[in-house]
Amino acid sequence: MSDTLRESLLVKLGQLQCHFTWGPQMDIVDLDEVKQKLQDSIIIGGKHQGVPHNQLAYINYLQGNCEEALRDLEEAERRLREIHGDGFERRSIVTHGNRAWLHYHMGQLSEAQSYLDKLEVMCGPLTQGSHVTEMVPEVLGEKGWSLLSSHSQFYEEAKECFARALEKDPDNTEWNMGYATALYRLESISGILKKPEVSQSVRQLRRVLELDPGESVARVMLALRLQEFQREAEANELVEEALRTSPDSPFVLRYAAKFYRIQHNVDKAIELLKKALEFTPHSSFLHHQMGICYRNKLYSLHKNQCNGDPGVEAELINHCKHHFGTAFELEPSNIFAKLDFAGICLMNAWHEIL
């Protein structure tokens, strides 16, 4: 292919909506950390999480693993056909865009052109504007999930993606769940809400449950938010129902464990976290939560027994050091795990002096 045709192809590729054109967001994240989270997400599964294989393919490309990236995109396509059936074409716009870009970077220009041609044929009937550049709800939703998987800096943009998708498809449960998740995380960062009536995430999570009463992750997220507002009775009921209907969902287990830890039922929280770790043993979040639970048990020991059993105290300290240390080894940017590890080491040093 001549240089002129190559340049023409590159211009067309630049107009696509896919991870290769959303790529600048990856400049500020640790690729290995995001990759591990995406791999955990694939293991866990879930009703609403977008297509993590697409984003994983882009990260593998950035790390020079093009063949692995191709396998990720093939798996994304397989999963989309399996899950969406008749809706496959709309759902595969991002995947096909990623494939076009990947083939281009691998020097397979005719294959890249082939996927561009497929997108023109697919997108023509779906849009009224410039075909492959149009942000249909499925593309907006995919971008929203990718942003949520990247960095907290992009949560606001993720929220806007889901909001725009809902303008075109207001009753779509997946986009409603994505919007709720973005709102939940943004509110958790701001931490300024005083009443549930003014919480956008509470309203949106209730909306998700109206559309899909079986959405257990939304149920336990709502419980956590209501717990902050001292709505204990409803919150307890929501968590119990989520665990009853989805006892093996790692997402439900991790949120429920946090709920019980905050409620000071630390043994219950540890039980749930151990179960969740069986699914995703390389989760920095889960190890950090385990460390916090064991530290709470340690504080309780100090509070209730001035002369506690030194063996029990040493065991709890070792549990804390193990889980906090593992958390930041798995995710070096987890500054909270590093600080907690340092705190436990200081406590251990003080314990040895005494």
Helical run tally: 18
Question: Structural class given helices, strands, pairing?
Answer: mainly alpha
- CATH level 4 superfamily of the domain at 1-151: Tetratricopeptide repeat domain
Q: End-to-end span in angstroms?
A: 76 Å
What is the C-level CATH assignment of the domain at 1-151? Mainly Alpha
Return residue spans where pLDDT drops below 50 for at least 5 consecutive residues.
Answer: none
Mean pLDDT, as a whole number?
88
* Share in helix: over 70%
Q: What name does the CATH topology of the domain at 1-151 carry?
A: Serine Threonine Protein Phosphatase 5, Tetratricopeptide repeat
Q: Give the overall silhouette.
A: globular
Kindly state the number of beta strands.
Answer: 0
Radius of gyration: 23 Å
How does CATH name the architecture of the domain at 1-151?
Alpha Horseshoe
What does this 3D model show about the protein?
The protein is mainly α and 354 residues long. Among the domains are: 1-151, Tetratricopeptide repeat domain (Serine Threonine Protein Phosphatase 5, Tetratricopeptide repeat, Alpha Horseshoe); 283-354. The chain has 18 helices and no strands. The chain has helices at 3-14, 31-44, 52-62, 66-84, 88-91, 93-105, 109-123, 137-148, 155-168, 173-190, 200-211, 216-228, 232-245, 250-262, 266-279, 284-304, 310-330, 335-353. Helix 2 packs antiparallel against helix 3, helix 8 packs antiparallel against helix 9 (155-168) and helix 16 (284-304) runs antiparallel to helix 17 (310-330). The N and C termini lie far apart (76 Å).
